[in-house]
Every structure is written in structure tokens, then in C-alpha cells.
Amino acid sequence: GMRKGRLHVVVLPYPAKGHSIPLLHFAKQLHSMGVFVTFVNTFNHLSKEHFRSIYGANEDDNPMQVVPLGVTPPEGEGHTSLPYVNHVNTLVPETKILMTTLFARHEDAPPSCIVSDMFLGWTQEVANTFNIPKYVLFASPASGLAFMLHTSELVKQGKLPIDRSKEEDLVYDIPGVPPTRLADFPSPIQDPEDDSYLFYLRNCEQLLEAAGVLINTYYELEPTYIEALRKAYNLISFLPVGPLLPKAYFEPSSDVVPVDSDIRDPCLKWLDTQPDSSVLYVSFGSVAVLSIEQIQEIAQGLEASGQRFLLVLRPPSNPENVPLLPEGFEERTRGRGFVQVGWAPQLWVLSHRAVGGFLTHCGWNSTLESICRGVPMLAWPIQAEQAMNARFLVDVVKAGVELCRVTDKLVTKERISETVKFFMTEGVSTARKNVRKLQKLALNAVALGASVQKNLEDFTLEVRFGKQLPNGL
Ligand code: UDP
């Protein structure tokens, strides 16, 4: 039925950066539209520094409500590890208590709906308990969503679990998904023995129970995939609301990189010394950990390429304390290379005038961020749905060049050096032209009165007045 008073949306992210960051941007956007928002900081996983590196030093005067939920398991690390996932899955009772508190605390604006992450399927049960709708915020592209919704069909057809004796290079045509080989299927379903297999399939089923899916993409980027979704599942609303980034990033000329020296990161200071569009930014996101052997190949490949680079590394587990970089590497590449171990302020890096290309694992946030800042990509998919994203980037929209495939075990320094050199000297210009086109479409999509705003408004109307079901239903 119709809900009176102010809308109150409870946003519940999965506690991994690639998920909590876009959900935070979504929450901020709703908040700025005058919706009352409670952002649940699962495991207090986003720190003050993260909020700051995402939104700059000046948080607004009208802050959004942020509440903690649950405690990080002691094993802490490994956001995709089984103990972590299982622990996240035990949060149902705590989430119900939190919801009860929110209902009691906000009598004038009780929670009207839950918007939760794609991998928190159990929030459906919580929403059912409180008789409010649940929407999913999908942090991957529409094509990844089309794949997830199609998995039960693949199971029925006997194509899942994957039959290893079948031709590896067979290309599957799934509605709403770019032509995909078995090896490009998302990593959780590659191995039925893996615990993530059932976790993934369960979440795929639970997606079908949601009232709607808000997708971190924009219509103009994936029109045929979005239409395919709408045609195939007409009880679910599919609303593209991306790219989910702070507003400032949609103004190509605005200088979003802070000049404050106390928040100016070492890698930004180094970028200041480099010529325009000359540096290849290399990063594999917040989850992937490369082997020390692979890191060594990357370092040597970058050195041999002769190109300028900023290499950001997540430290691998290294009990024997093996040096991460080849001996003498830093001296030999001084002035044209910089290595940062740990976290880099990626949106600022991609916005820096010196960055000319992005060697990326094709995580969807990284992909969208690169598009919005007009930076062409060199694709090195590692896991999750990144291989499908790479196919889209390289084969469909041609905003990037392929460095390797997800099936390549160790990528050699020769391959890295050759591809990087080719990319930065030749390949980059076509890719840049194409990425700029997509950037322009993104700017149009988020402009005042355009598709993203309309979809966000449709979402609030649906929550307020209930879903308008298709004719005859
Ligand atoms: N990120 C960052 N600094 C880092 C690594 C990652 O700011 O050093 C941010 C990046 O900008 C993006 C998110 O973390 O918003 C990573 O999400 P993505 O989907 O690209 O990959 P994932 O980490 O989930 O594999």
C-alpha cells in the first residue's frame, strides 16, 4: 500500500570495498534527493579515512545516518574467504534487531524499504519479516546480472556444473551477456566443489525474489542487455542508476584532485612530476592478491616497456620476507616509475592529468571509474565476473586492449612489456576515442532530468506507491 511521510531507505552493503563503495555513493545520492537514508556500515568496514578519501575533507553539514552492524570475524582478511562469507550470512538476527530499533527510533519515517547488496540474498527474509520491499543494488554490470539470473536455466540445461571435458573455447550465447566462453564464466561457479559455488547459486535465486534491481550502470552503456533483462523477467524492475560516483567526477574539467598537502597521497605527489597523459596506472583492485612471482614479472615487464607507470600493489602473504621487487628496480626506474604498496586514492589517480592509461583487473567499479574519467584500459581479468567485463570492454565497446585472459596462469615479463609498450604508444588512441564517447554518454545520463535521475525517481515512486505491474498482472 501507499506509504505516508518521508521515505526511509535502509542501505545494506556486503562488507567488501567493491560493494560498499558503490552502495555508499547510492546512499549519498538518495540522501541528496531528500530521502531519509540509513547507511549500514557492515562490520564498520568503511573507515573514516575511506569516507574522506571518497568524499574529500568537507563532509556535508547535513550528514547521512550511518549505523554499524556486526563485528568483523577475527580472520579479518579475505573478503571472499568462506569464514568471512559464512559470518556475513549469520547477520540475520542482528539485522532484524537493527530494523526493530530503526522502526522504534523513526516513528515519523519508519523504514520503507531495504536496498541491499547482490550477495546479501538473506535480506529478503528480513524485508519479509517487516513487510517492506527489498531492492538489490547490483554492483556489477547489467550483463553480469543477466548471467546471474540465467544460472538456474544453465543448471536445468545441464550446462552447470561445468563439464570440463567440453570444448573450453565454446562460446555461449546467453541473452543479455556478451559472447562468453566457459572459462569466462564468473569464478564462483567454475568449480562445483568450491563452497562459493552454492553461495553464488543461492544468491542468484534470491535475486529473483527482489522487487527490483538497481544496477550500477547506465542505459546507454548496455542498452541491449538492459532490454534483454526487461523482456525476460517482467515482474522485476530493472533501473540503471549508475555510474555511482560523487557528482564532481562527472565534470570533465573540474579539478577533483585535492591540493591540500596533508591529504595529498605520495602517489599523487609523484604524479605531479610527470607529463600529461603519460603514466600507466596499474592496479588490481581491493581483493585480488598476486603471487610474488607474478609481481616480479610485472615489475620487470614495466621496466622493459620503457613506459612511465604507477604500480599499486596489495602485499601478498610473504612469510619468508622475499623482496617484492627485483633488485635495483627502484633505482633503475626512478623518475619514470613509482610503486605504492597498499591503498591508492583511485578516483583521484584516474582524475590526475598525468594518467594516460589504466592496467586494470576489470572490476566493475574500476571500469566505470575509468570510463567516467576518460582513461583507456588494458585488461587483465583475475576473478569474479571480470573476464566477462574484459570481453565487453575489449570486444564490444573497444575501450580497451587485452593483455591476457583469465585462464593465463603466469603472465610473462615479455608479454607484459610488449603489450604495455604497444598500448601506451599505439593502441591507446583508438581506445581513448571510444572511452571518451562512453564518458560523454555517462555525463548525459547523469545530467539533471536525464535517465539516471528519472530512474532514481521511479524507484522512490515505486517504494511509495507500490509497484506498477505490467498490464494484465
Ligand atoms: N580502490 C581504491 N584504491 C585501491 C584499490 C581499490 O580506491 O588501492 C577502489 C576503486 O576505486 C574501486 C574499488 O576500490 O572503487 C574496487 O572495486 P572494483 O569493482 O574495481 O574491484 P574489486 O576490488 O571489487 O575487485
From TrEMBL:
Keyword field contains rRNA-binding: no
EC category: transferase
EC number(s) reported in the record: 2.4.1.-
UniProt keyword annotations, A-Z: Glycosyltransferase, Transferase
One Pfam family recorded for the sequence: UDPGT
Single annotated GO MF: UDP-glucosyltransferase activity
Family stated for the protein in its record: Belongs to the UDP-glycosyltransferase family.
Name of the protein described by the UniProt record: Glycosyltransferase
